[in-house]
Amino acid sequence: MLQLGASSLSANDITALLLGIAILLGLARILGERARRYRQPSVLGEILAGIILGPTIFGALSTYLVAKGFLSHNLFELIFPLEGGEKIALDGFITISATLLLFVVGLEVDLSTVIRQGKEAIAVSLAGIVLPFTFGFVIAWYLPDFLGAGPRGIGEDGQLPFAIFLGIAMSITALPVIAKILLDLNIAKSDMGMLIISSAMLNDLVGWIGFAIVLALLPVTAMVIPDPAAIHSATEVVTDAVNNTGSSQVVTTILITLVFLALMLTLGRLACHKALPYVQARWSWPGGVLSFVICISLICAAFTEYLGIHSIFGAFVAGVAIGDSTHLSERTRDTINQFIMNIFSPIFFASIGLRINFISEFNISIVLLVLVLATVGKVSGSYFGARLAKLGKREASALSFGMAAQGAVGIILGQLAREAGLINDELMVAIVVMALTTSLISGPIMQIILRLQHQRKLIDFLTDKQVIIDPTSTDIMQTIGELSKRAAEITNLKAHDIYKAVLQRERIMHTGLPGGLAVPHARLDNLPKPCVVIARHRNGIDFDAPDGKPAQIIGLLLTPTDQPETQIELLSLFAKSFSRNEIRQRALEIKSPTEFLAVLNQAAAEEAEATSPH
Amino acid sequence: MLQLGASSLSANDITALLLGIAILLGLARILGERARRYRQPSVLGEILAGIILGPTIFGALSTYLVAKGFLSHNLFELIFPLEGGEKIALDGFITISATLLLFVVGLEVDLSTVIRQGKEAIAVSLAGIVLPFTFGFVIAWYLPDFLGAGPRGIGEDGQLPFAIFLGIAMSITALPVIAKILLDLNIAKSDMGMLIISSAMLNDLVGWIGFAIVLALLPVTAMVIPDPAAIHSATEVVTDAVNNTGSSQVVTTILITLVFLALMLTLGRLACHKALPYVQARWSWPGGVLSFVICISLICAAFTEYLGIHSIFGAFVAGVAIGDSTHLSERTRDTINQFIMNIFSPIFFASIGLRINFISEFNISIVLLVLVLATVGKVSGSYFGARLAKLGKREASALSFGMAAQGAVGIILGQLAREAGLINDELMVAIVVMALTTSLISGPIMQIILRLQHQRKLIDFLTDKQVIIDPTSTDIMQTIGELSKRAAEITNLKAHDIYKAVLQRERIMHTGLPGGLAVPHARLDNLPKPCVVIARHRNGIDFDAPDGKPAQIIGLLLTPTDQPETQIELLSLFAKSFSRNEIRQRALEIKSPTEFLAVLNQAAAEEAEATSPH
Prior knowledge:
Number of strands of chain A: 6
Oligomer: homodimer
Structural class of chain A: mainly alpha
């Protein structure tokens, strides 16, 4: 197709836009699912996808291949260009993604808990701000050149805003990242989860307001802009700073923000609660509510963006106000949640790594200094605040690491400061590395501190190879033989040894269970880890079950002799997984090992949903 | 916030982007729901929202208010600017919306039906192309100046491409619009619906390929570009036309498109069918499948955009390939459907009216000529084709009006031709008016021809005023008195007359039903239309029901004497609406008339879902 002019997207732009979003989404979800399998928050894999697709790896590789003549075009620059229509359209889509993500995060907030924890939240967030802010302010004040102050962050006029900025950069908390981590760890609705979210919310509010002050303080004169391309924007920045963010303007912004927050959480919340039944009575259902709530969140997002506080705050506040209503049905929540968490959220997190080369701009001293000061300051400050708020030591530690996740918000602030000429690229990379590292470690550390353990599921023990569909066997011996043979291939033990051990156990008493199940099992000395092999036998084998039914789903459960508890765990997992008649029925209808696993996975998800508190 | 440079979105851009999307979505949904209440396809209201928000009304009003000094800024230009970052970002979002919409449309296509109808589809689409194409070609060939040929559409070199273009513009069918109309009318899955969709698909394929030929034929020299801003793009158009769309290039594009189509519908379809169980077995459920299918659709969309055939085709084909798999669960379909049809689709349709002033560029002769020729040509051509394919007269008529909807595709083509200097603004408006008019009328006309009647629901008879929550009455007489009084306010009859008539009926036999329901009713001579008043009585009134339970939901049903069938209809609607124990329970828990209606609306939607063929 055609280039429609400077203000339109060309066919190439659209191709790159769609492909770019598809690749971001695809890789982010693949790595996110991988992280989840290693029991990590999926946001970890999603951010990693961005680093891989960004200039650090994909970009560098493209450049290399072009230089070597293997590629005629730089693929990275084609798909994720640094300027032009597609970049703007992609940025717009990512902004909308971030906004919707924060809306979902807001929906999850239980306002009554937050209000109940008001005092604690203030303690945690203030203590969590003061300490890292001081660290950042002091080193920035004394070592601006070493740290990487930009052209407008040095000299008499630049020293103060640069120091304040670094203080803020050290003390900000990433609401979206931490909320996602809490959701992933399934503790977002716990008291501690809510305390972290309310503290982070206060924290960010203070941070953004502080950043507005930095902009107001920026020197108008004495500009040394090294990059000619930046002159235009920097000039505008200054004009903006003078016109819009003078000190009285800053005070006004703060006041309006607080009024907006107060109004939304009182009148706005009530209005949504009153409006929802009307929409549900008069509009198509459930689609009407869906449009309504997304519309409200976008309007609030636009409003806070207009105030200069960033769109994600408005969306978050809208989510809190709407999510509180008992009239928002489970089904609407679920549709919003599924679509946003599986489409928009991965795209947003992957986008973080998309604009930075983590190798060329890497200065180890600055990175370490920023990382250590931010982590130590934030963790110890929040810990102190949490202890003040009378939390136990374990909870206070977990919370303090939760508060340390800087994520996207730190990066957005850094980006703004870099564009304003306040910091240089090396400091920018240090801030990004710090933000990513804290985001990456806070989940796992919280998990360790809180001794959170994912309950294992039967499917965690299974691969395609461990499922046999319709074996040819016609009696118990043959069936155990087939299962043992497959187990032998997987464990490298001898099939005959397995067979003998299982048969020995079977001779004591047959292992048929009611409902067409059977669990032949054995403990083996030289087995390094548990091994499960399942046969789906459509004709059924008589395993002498109490209800007399032939076994159609037969699970061979082998466990190491020194792990007696694992045998119990596997037996109960197997029985529980197939306890519902519907699941057994579905398992009988499928045609391949993969489909068998799909049934199990789906059943586990349904089980988890049915038992979730929400 | 700050302007980050020419290739980034400023805070103002982001504010306008979020606000613009919110306003488009909000008004489109409000008018869409309104259209639905008048039993029209909701797309009608959605397109109308765009015309209201576009330059025609909102834009003109803003300009007027600024000129009069009532506004300091032109609100329309702030929210929907004609150039700059926000416009590009909004265009990108709209492109993605159109792509996802077509994906859902594709999901709904039942491939086996399309294949079964292959011959018919070819007849319908070819006949539907030949006639309007001839009309368009002939008048364009002889009257280029009158019609509004652009600078490159006149003279010896321009005559042929201009004539071909107008032929194509007359014969194109709008897949997204027509598909939405069919979905709205609930006949997308009928044989005729599938035939319309398969014909429209073939039709568009031919149309787009034809348009590529037009571009190849465009004269390189003899350019007279009146608008200096267009020079840049027009130059590029020519370069594109020469470099990329030479005749061998055209053939290649056609071949690759056909190969892509064939591969996706065979191997791609099989691959998706095989991949879905894997994703469902290994990824989180149901989110994993959601990401997977959206990702595939975006990749296919990018590929067809790259080919020059427009992204929506790839998404559509991906939808067809994936939707065919039995492994795509009902729940995943539902989440995709709800989110896309209620968020992306209204935004896309509203966007159509956003760039055109329908008043200033309106030339009645051209508009009428284009409208009449396109409609007559398309309708009679498709009718002829449908009769050839052995459809009955009624079905053939309905189908021919279905094929006449030109919608967005006609507009996109017109837009491209206008930017290429092939047509002028007046012809562009005529094409848009024709596209919109045909889109607006085709749904209602089909509805009339097919005598489609929406089954009425109880809620269609009710407003807040017709629901009484917890009246103070304690016996039958008082209750009927209260209900009659409310009915009198609504109907302007005398309360006493109603009371007397109802009581008379009640004396023959009490109207209590099992499950806590009661239906006092009467036929009245001077009642112009049926009137229902429902009382939700928490304590219950004894209406002598067979099961002895006091009535807690009491429906007063008044019908005109000359409509005996309406009384039966209302009685059965009332009984059916509250037949499920769960619904009665919910109705007892609510606190206001609106909430009561919300319960009814939700119940009706659940009912419709449970009985839908899908």
